[in-house]
Amino acid sequence: MVPPVEGGDAALLPEFPRGPLDAYRARASFSWKELALFTEGEDMLRFKKTIFSALEKDPLFARSPGADLSLEKYRELNFLRCKRIFEYDFLSVEDMFKSPLKVPALIQCLGMYDSSLAVKYLLHSLVFGSAVYSSGSERHLTYIPKIFSMEIFGCFALTELSHGSNTKAIRTTAQYDPATKEFIIHSPDFEAAKFWVGNMGKTATHAVVFAKLHVPGDQCHGLHPFIVQIRDPKTLLPMPGVMVGDMGKKLGQNGLDNGFAMFHKVRVPRQSLLNRMGDVTPEGTYVSPFKDVRQRFGVSLGGLSSGRVSILSLAVVNLKLAMAIALRFSATRRQFGPTEEEEIAVLEYPMQQCRLLPYLAAAYALDHFSKSLFLDLVEFQRGLASGDRSARQAELGREIHALASASKPLASWTAQQGIQECREACGGHGYLAMNRLGVLRDDNDPNCTYEGDNNVLLQQTSNYLLGLLAPRVQDGACFRSPLKSVDFLDAYPSILDQKFEVSSVADCLDSAVALAAYKWLVCYLLRETYQKLNQEKRSGSSDFEARNNCQVSHGRPLALAFLELTVVQRFHEHVHQPCVPPSLRAVLGRLSALYALWSLSRHAALLYRGEASDCGLTDRSS
Amino acid sequence: MVPPVEGGDAALLPEFPRGPLDAYRARASFSWKELALFTEGEDMLRFKKTIFSALEKDPLFARSPGADLSLEKYRELNFLRCKRIFEYDFLSVEDMFKSPLKVPALIQCLGMYDSSLAVKYLLHSLVFGSAVYSSGSERHLTYIPKIFSMEIFGCFALTELSHGSNTKAIRTTAQYDPATKEFIIHSPDFEAAKFWVGNMGKTATHAVVFAKLHVPGDQCHGLHPFIVQIRDPKTLLPMPGVMVGDMGKKLGQNGLDNGFAMFHKVRVPRQSLLNRMGDVTPEGTYVSPFKDVRQRFGVSLGGLSSGRVSILSLAVVNLKLAMAIALRFSATRRQFGPTEEEEIAVLEYPMQQCRLLPYLAAAYALDHFSKSLFLDLVEFQRGLASGDRSARQAELGREIHALASASKPLASWTAQQGIQECREACGGHGYLAMNRLGVLRDDNDPNCTYEGDNNVLLQQTSNYLLGLLAPRVQDGACFRSPLKSVDFLDAYPSILDQKFEVSSVADCLDSAVALAAYKWLVCYLLRETYQKLNQEKRSGSSDFEARNNCQVSHGRPLALAFLELTVVQRFHEHVHQPCVPPSLRAVLGRLSALYALWSLSRHAALLYRGEASDCGLTDRSS
User: Which purpose does this protein serve, as stated in its record (chains A, B) (predicted)?
Assistant: First the structure.
């Protein structure tokens, strides 16, 4: 294991090298070191510094920005780097349990270096590794040390060529054969080929394959995960019956080898079934410890959330990097000015400020949110590990699922749009590959797609909120959730009666003002969505049709506004804690207000429209 | 010259090969052949078919979608292809004059094949070639045949490392030396290096270099264009004193070799000055045929417009290609459905329709607009060529400049956002390089930047409108422009009094309704911008500050709304002509209404806000 960086603040946060940014830095109203310490904490800064210092000194990680690397070479390099990261062993299992935030911090550091590396590492250790660990049982523990030594290299094979979002339509089968005590993994046709599987293209030796489990008598028990060896670890040649290959060039993340695989009646031992959710006896009888389908569903939701929370954190990294590049450029690039002789930095233009600064605020707010949601997830996973089967634990799973499902869209889109704005705001220089904005944009793009298309995921969140409103309207149930993100909705009738009563612009420069407006907005959208859904159903639409017809104009903005409110709320509370150093209060307060107002302003038409409507919920829906 | 494609409609518009799209095609309410004939006309369809057929048969143009081509190889291939296009000689000079729309059509066909090729061809023939032709005089005509035979290969060198948008700050000098009758071209330092020059990186032998012209006595006469040989056409080695090179990898358009150049006291003959705007006598006296600075400025604006109109047309091509890819995918990709057994095409989902169909409508509306604006530009250039120095000709130049300056931003952003939406709407498959959406996005991106940053350009359009309002308010002058795009503003006081009075959704499904709302919106924004500008000035801001402070919240939306209105207006008129075949009226009317309403809906907050304000212009500004 690499020893942590020693020394005091000067070693941890050395001064920037002198340069054209000095003038702007001298004008700052706060100490950047103080802000870094407040945002990260000394222990985390030291951890990140340890990682960066190791990579800086290692020639394998030497950068050649804008280089024209071939696909083959890039994939090879990325694999070697991933292996090296395991060798560095930056994070012990004990550390992981003591400071869980170091897990996303490590992924973020790798993402700062190269998204392809972060994702490759994440897929092997956290996605493949966690799937084996948490979906398997004691008999699968032998895999764990092999995963950390990279003796085997893994991937997670769920998506198929013709089905991604709709997992129920996955068609790979696993038929149990009691005669040999084996499962037969089979792809019925090429549309059922596993597809897009990261690490599968060139390097994975093992895959967690999701397949429909059949036992004799042709009973199907739905999707289950199996650990299947797909390549010989020595030669990397495919195992008999496995047709596996690389999907070729992608728009980005080209260091990652996404692959496809078809299985032709591949026989694996009965023990290959990762049997936490259900198992098959040697004789061929299906057994499951979960009697309650809803509970079983809650457990699987937890797994989905962890992927989405990781993506949230990767999107934030991309946004941060782009902001640093674009803001530094804007502070040094001079163009036009009050006179022909005097040119001013483009950062001085209100246009450039309006284009970039809201995304800077978004980076801070989303960074804080991603950490806090990760800690919520850790709480949930500890509950799972300790066998907590309380109602609170189940509710926590649902709440985190709803938050994670909307936070991946919000963060990946904010990063996507922010990076694009940075690219354009840097003019031609932003278009040069060596300036990295293109790579960031291309590498960020799959965050909008994998682990669920953004627009599809938002439906999970709007459904969650609608699911809470119905019992309230019908039985007067309370809005209550373990993390309290929906508790304010309890007062929705009085919130909807509130009017926006701020008289001056200066009074708006506090995120509390935007927060109040956001609460109104979410109540308004929830009521409108509920009414629209009921109206659709009354006019004869099926549930499927009714939801589809509501999603564009109602469900989608509802889910986004709810998540934005949650991000604003958490950041607002964070920057108004008593422990905030007095010298940072002003700048953090401004960041919080800027993010809140900017996000809110995109709903301005709804705020105007809402003012015109004043009918209560029960009037229409009853 | 390649002979045009012969044969009747069947050869010109053959049936599509049978496939999974048949079911959707059979459901169409109109004949796609009829629509193609109406949109393009038979002569144009034949011209495009000739080009595509030639490229399809030529192995040099064989495609390998998603291939991992090295930078060097791609640039070499693109140069060879560009040369081959000149050999094909698709468009004679006579044809160009007879059917000027064939010029953008040729560029669009090349852009459909590959943006790098279109831009390389455009830069050499139209940008470099036109600059020599229209900025030079008889003594420069010897270059023209060499340009078309590619005996010499050209580039247009205006931008420098530190200055792009602010051309007044360009610092390359051209000092006249009467002793040798030469100009000395010189780059004072590396910040004055010519930068981003397309074709300069590897292949150009000659450059039109913009430099500050100095005559003895150190008098500076501002920027002038010089034709400078930068490489030996045989060896491609740089000429003495010229340091020239390639800028390396970009986010896209990597077939195009963008370059930089520094000139170290490079001596060129006096005749190298492209002397249409001004000349230097052998003795060293500066002479210019243009006495009126405003007139001279009008002439140069014409040149700028032509670049912007070309970019508009390239952006439209990118959007069209992306739409075809995403819509075809959406009609065949099935995911989820009303029951677990039955999956439906993703195009059936209201969400997918809302994501894609407005961009389809935008492609039609902007395609029509780009052609009509090109024809306006041709009218203007014919006036220039015939020596028309009337007030109308000058006004036409200004109006086209205002339209072109906002149309490049509108089209390049619409394409940028549309392609991104297509990429995401195709899920993972959209992220695979071979499916081309990434290349389209990356190749479209510089359209937002070159020939003027989009946000900077919009200021040209808002300034044009404000410049017309001031004399109206002060002296009661009329709003009149040669193309009549501003004439409606004459009725602004009564337009501002109008209320939106449509009672049903069905009544909105006519672009006339959106048009009326757009007229109100532009009047409203113009009034608000004018008032805000005057208010800024009254409170002590300089003109520079006042304009900067108005641009984000006022000038920018004003310019965009005005251009959108113009696009909607022209498309509305186009699809409501008596010559529209009756069977196409419904579908074209729907496209027009969809584009108009969708564009307008993005200003919804302004429409609500405007309703609340009812004070007249003179009340506040006087």
Answer: Oxidizes the CoA-esters of 2-methyl-branched fatty acids.
**Residue to test with chain B: of A424, A457, A459, A543, most B Cβ within 10 A:** A424
Distance of alpha carbon B312 from alpha carbon B415, whole angstroms: 10
- Say if CB B157 and CB B131 are below 8 A apart: no
Looking at the DSSP bridge assignments, the partners of residue A395 are none
Where would I find the H helices in B243-292? none
A219 versus A516: the higher-pLDDT residue is A516
Which 3-state string (H, E, C) describes B402-456? HHHHHHHHHHHHHHHHHHHHHHHHCHHHHHEHHHCHHHHHHHHHHHHCCCCCHHH
- Note the residue count of chain B: 622
**Residue B291 pLDDT > 90:** no
Q: Which of B169, B195, B420 sits opposite A343 (nearest CB)?
A: B169
The answer to whether residues B41 and B101 touch, using CB atoms and an 8 Å cutoff, is no
- Does the distance separating the beta carbons of A427 and B165 come in below 8 Å? yes
At position B205, the amino acid (one-letter code) is T
At B614, is the pLDDT very low, low, confident or very high (cuts 50, 70, 90)? very low
Query: Is the Cβ–Cβ distance between B521 and B488 less than 8 Å?
Result: no
ipTM, interface predicted TM-score of the complex: 0.94
Bridge-based pairing state of the strands B206-215 and B219-229: antiparallel
**Coil, strand, or helix at residue A432?**
strand
- Measured in angstroms, the CA of A493 and the nearest CA of chain B are apart by 24
Alpha-carbon span A389 to B318, nearest angstrom: 54
Interface mutation vs chain A, best among B74, B202, B431, B543, most A CBs within 10 Å: B431
Nearest-by-Cβ selection for A445 from B431, B544, B548: B431
- Contacts with B609 from chain A: Cβ below 8 Å: 604, 608
Radius of gyration of chain A (CA): 26
Q: Give the pLDDT band (50/70/90) at residue A384.
A: confident
Residue A451 known to be catalytic = yes
Please give the share of chain B, as a percent, with pLDDT higher than 90: 81
Query: Which 8-state DSSP code applies to residue A252?
Result: S
**Whether the predicted model's global pTM rises above the 0.90 cut:** yes
Strand B206-215 and strand B154-157: pairing? Answer: parallel
The Cα B99–Cα A319 span in angstroms is: 48
Q: Determine, for residues B249 and A66 on separate chains, whether the beta-carbon distance falls below 8 Å.
A: yes
Compute the nearest-CA separation of B66 from chain A (Å): 6
Distance of alpha carbon B420 from alpha carbon B430, whole angstroms = 10
- Classified as helix, coil or strand, A615 is coil
Q: Is B284 annotated as a binding residue?
A: no
Q: How far apart, in whole angstroms, are the C-alpha atoms of residue A209 and residue A187?
A: 11
Q: What is the pLDDT of residue B387?
A: 84
Query: In 10 A of CB B581, how many CB atoms?
Result: 13
State the CB neighbour count (10 A cutoff) for residue A463.
Answer: 16
| Residue B55 CB contacts under 8 Å (≥ 6 apart), including other chains | B61, B113
User: What is residue B211's three-state secondary structure?
Assistant: strand
Q: Is A339 marked within a binding site?
A: no
Q: What number of other Cβ atoms are within 10 A of residue B59's Cβ? A: 5
Residue of B nearest to A452 (CA): B427
DSSP A552: I
Q: What residue has token string 């070479």?
A: A73
Domains and CATH numbers, chain B: 154-291 (2.40.110.10), 292-450 (1.20.140.10), 457-476+513-614 (no CATH)
Which candidate, A69, A57, A51, places its Cα nearest to that of A2? A51
> In one letter, which amino acid is A243?
M
Nearest CA in chain B to A542: B338
DSSP H or E stretch at residue B208: strand B206-215
- Give B248 to chain A, closest Cα distance, Å: 7
**Nearest chain B Cα distance for residue A272, angstroms:** 28
Q: Which residue in the set B196, B423, B608 is minimally distant from A445, CB to CB? A: B423
